Amino acid sequence: MLNSLSGRFLILTTVFVMLAEILIFVPSIARYRENYLLDHLERAQIASLALLADDMLDSELEQELLENAGVFNVVLRRDEVRQLMLATPMPQPISETFDLRDGTALVLIRDAMMRLTKSENEVIRVIGAPLREAGLLIEITMETGPLRTAMIDYGVRILILSAVISVFTAVLLFLAVRSLLVKPIKGVVDHMQRYAEAPEDARRIIEPGAGVTELREAEEALKSMQTELTSALRQKERLAQLGSAVSKISHDLRNILTSAQLFTDRIESSEDPLVARMAPKLVNSITRAVHLCESTLAFGKAEEPSPTLTVAMLSPIVEDVIDSERLAAGDYDLSLSEDIPVSMQIRADAEQVFRVIANLVRNARQAIIASGKPGEINVSASEDSSAWFIDIRDTGPGLPPKAQEHLFTPFQGGVTKGGSGLGLAISAELVRGHGGSLELSNTGTDGTAFRIRLPKGDVTLV
Q1: pTM confidence score
Q2: How far is CA 48 from CA 60, 94, 170, in A?
Q3: Residue 107 and residue 98 in contact, taking contact as beta carbons nearer than 8 Å
Q4: What average pLDDT is seen over the chain?
Q5: Could you give the CA distance from residue 398 to residue 400 in angstroms, rounded to a whole number?
Q6: Which of 307, 341, 398, 409 is geometrically suited to a Cys-Cys bond with 349, CB 3.0 to 4.6 A?
């Protein structure tokens, strides 16, 4: 209870209200003391009026008037003449004199606090202005014991009233906080707990409904997070199922391609010039397909296998990609070209580099054909002392904003309709395996350019 939000509000409210009441208590006590003294001055003045009406008062009547006024003697100054109107013997000498005619608030508060701290019964002189201008001043002497007792009684009543007000206020605030804040917060917590039991169930996503602005913003943020998490979990589940299916398909496809590889060995011995020229490309394509199936099986288990680094000529790899894409483009008005130095060698996994370049060129070809306009694709390469650079440029329509935002994310970075976005994700992972990087150089209405960077490291090629 006390550790809850509403419980702490209850305690803090009680404490703060009590502090506020204490700040009110001090000037209230000072005001009460002042009124107490003024009241005795008024009583003393009324008692002195009886003497003015009849100069012949016996001692018993005078004593009764002083007791009713609560004073020992009364001095009234009229017409610059100081007259002792009523008097009775005082039990002890006067200890202090207080003039109420010019007392400031701070002085009154100080005198009141000092009176509360003094437990001794003293005799004090009090000076004030007579009522209805019945003289220049009136002066009385009185005991402080009854004054202190009355101040304590008044203070206790004030403190009891303050305690009642603070508790009542705290209870009201407790109920208000519980209704306006604690219950909605607990509702959010309950939503989170129910969602945690089955985060893939979209029906458990919170629907914002809080009336408090800050709490509603929290609910909206929670809804956005839960929606994204549910989507990610569903996608993860689909990826797991897809990975299992792809692994099975790749296993069977690898066996089929291995059989096809045996048939191509016989085709190579054909005397037909066209067959003799195309057979090696067919063999290379089937070999790459077999390797792709094997690497897909590895990818389905964990990630792309580490590259097998060898020294390879870059030009033949790019030529194979260009030739394959020309066949895929058919009669479409698409120009494919390469600008690779004939003697350029790279230290990399040739099969993985082929896959990366093929993915990028294939994406460019599909984008240009989808636009319905003629286009060009060029693959070029350069190098410096630290790395090799391979640039793939096209004159296609450019990448849409959504594709740019999730460019290398599987199933989110697809550009063409129906595309999965796996090509770029796999390509980026293959390049990272070489210690390099795949970056989008630029994109726009005039085309797109990607750059592959393969570091040289400390290796010197011969």
Answers
A1: 0.43
A2: 15, 21, 51
A3: no
A4: 79
A5: 7
A6: 307
